[in-house]
Amino acid sequence: MIKVFERPKSLTDKPFHYCPGCTHGIVHRLVAEVMDELNIRERTVGVAPVGCAVFAYEYFNCDMQEAAHGRAPAVATGIKRVLPDCVVFTYQGDGDLAAIGTAEIVHAATRGENITTVFINNAIYGMTGGQMAPTTLIGQVTATTPYGRDKDRAGYPVRMSEMLATLEGSAYIERVSVHDIKHITQAKKAVKKAFETQLAGKGFSMVEVLSTCPTNWGMTPAEALKWLETNMIPYYPLGVKKEVE
Amino acid sequence: MSKVLMKGNEAIAEAAIRAGCRYFFGYPITPQNEIPAYMAKRMPETGGCFIQAESEVSAINMVYGAAGAGARVMTSSSSPGISLKQEGISYMAAAELPCVIVNMVRGGPGLGGIQPAQSDYFQATKGGGHGDYHLVVLAPSTIQEAADLVIEGFDIADQYRNPVMILGDGILGQMMEPVEFRFSNRRELPPKTWATTGHTGERPRNIINSLIIDPQALEDHVNRIYQKYGHIMKNEVKVECCNCDNADIIVAAYGTTSRIVKSVIYLARQEGIDVGLIRPITLWPFPANEFSRWADRQHVKAFLTVEMSTGQMVEDVRLGVNGKKPVFFYGRTGGMVPEPSAILEEIKKVMRSVMK
């Protein structure tokens, strides 16, 4: 019998704890497939965040460090400076990267730190029960914006990819989505490009992945995918924001 | 090796390099700025790496990453900056990551001042960050001792897989003394088989982590760390006793303050008072037994703790003395340094009080 589908070697056999319909599992798999294809698993050190992906160290089948909330880019910096021949990546959500960890991601990028960041933007804090994230859309209802996010009270959603693309040290920044097959395929290409950027020693690379949180958005998985496409993509346009040749 | 005249901060930095530290992550703050500046200059010469981080928070997390990757790594700061590092320090203690952290203490609380103080004793010895943990806290009183303790501190950190803090102050950092970089008491250290260096299949996958969601597992983890602390308390206590054999009064002081007390011993003798000094060199583990032992002696009538704070170490001195003799306190704070004449006056007051 020909095996046509299997788990990437870069994933452990631990079942994901993610909610039904959550797109973290898809993105984990994409990262793992890329690690397999580039044959870098044995020299990769990953850094897990605080948030829904806090247990990422149980899923990626490589050496891992678990960072404090928002500090993954600083931890990754320490690792990469000690082990320049290793591939170092962070996997962070929007609260981790765009709120509490803003300074760390900005300065890792501006130093041109030769690491790769996978940034999950699902416009909400998942693990803590659906509070407003920096990326929550105007009008979006969350536990801490029960009347919808009001720009006068809570400000505007932040576009991290565009912001980091302005920094000289960033080498490759792309925003992708995983709401359908076509976009998942494109997302994988972006993740691969990001790791290749690091392997080429070009500097900081990041892929922002628009993702869903059916549980905290109060939707079915299918509705959530549609909501992402209809509401998030217009505010967070997809595409390459920065690419250094 | 011959002695060289060096500033305290620079001697600490050089000692770290001699001890094999090749990674330094820091952030500017007075009065420790000579440490990062020295590291910025020396690290490239040694093939090491210096980064001026965007904050103390980032610096300590770079230390976390580098320590987790198996490197000898150091950071330094002063009081307000050390407060910012507490999150990372707690995580490192929990994840059992070795490193050396230098605190050149300045007056607090808040932004405080930039003059020397010892008001971070509680923060250094009682946790500082959240959760059940301890740092090994080393308090040098000379630049030579600072260099020696930095070198030994890296070994202690690696032996026990725990962060070590060098607790100095603005005076120790800024003054110059002759120093020799020497390697006495080198230890047999375990290999860092736990470091995340890439998983090739020759060992199990390594995970550096402090998240233990199951309460029983977390309790087991903390208890195991506390067993380790038990070994540290048994094996690593360092203390200097001066002139205690016939002392009427024993003064307890550490670091810079202990140097002043040493000069007071001679002043007191001229007044007919025999004064001894117990100088804790490890603030954690604290030499409580030393205080207990001297408190049992008939000739010792009282203890006087002198600190550049409103009274922090005095609590540990009281625990050590355990009610056997009265314990008095004298301190200056906010960057003020106690003068020998003022300490002598306190000693006389204590004598009058216990002779009543």
Name the descriptors.
heterodimer, A: 245 residues, alpha/beta, Rossmann fold, seven-stranded mixed β-sheet, 10 helices, 7 strands, 17% strand, globular, B: 356 residues, 2 domains, five-stranded mixed β-sheet, 12 helices, 43% helix
Description:
The complex is a heterodimer of chains A (245) and B (356). Chain A is built from ten helices and seven strands. In chain A, α1 crosses α8 and α4 packs across α5. The mean pLDDT of chain A is 98. By secondary structure, chain B is α/β, with parallel strands linked by helices. Chain B has two domains: 222 residues, Rossmann fold, CATH 3.40.50.970; 116 residues, Rossmann fold (3-Layer(aba) Sandwich). Chain B contains twelve helices and 15 strands. The longest helix of chain B is centred in the middle third of the chain and has 21 residues. Chain B is globular. The model of chain B has no long low-confidence stretch (mean pLDDT 97). The chains are: A alpha/beta (245), B alpha/beta (356). Chains A and B meet through β1, β2, α3 and α5 of A and α3, α4 and β9 of B. β2 of chain A pairs parallel with β9 of chain B.
Query: What is the count of β-strands of chain B?
Result: 15
Q: What's the domain count of chain A? A: 1
Going by CATH, the homologous superfamily of chain A would be Thiamin diphosphate (ThDP)-binding fold, Pyr/PP domains
Highest CATH level, the class of chain A? Alpha Beta
User: Unreliable stretches of chain B, pLDDT < 50, 5 or more residues?
Assistant: none
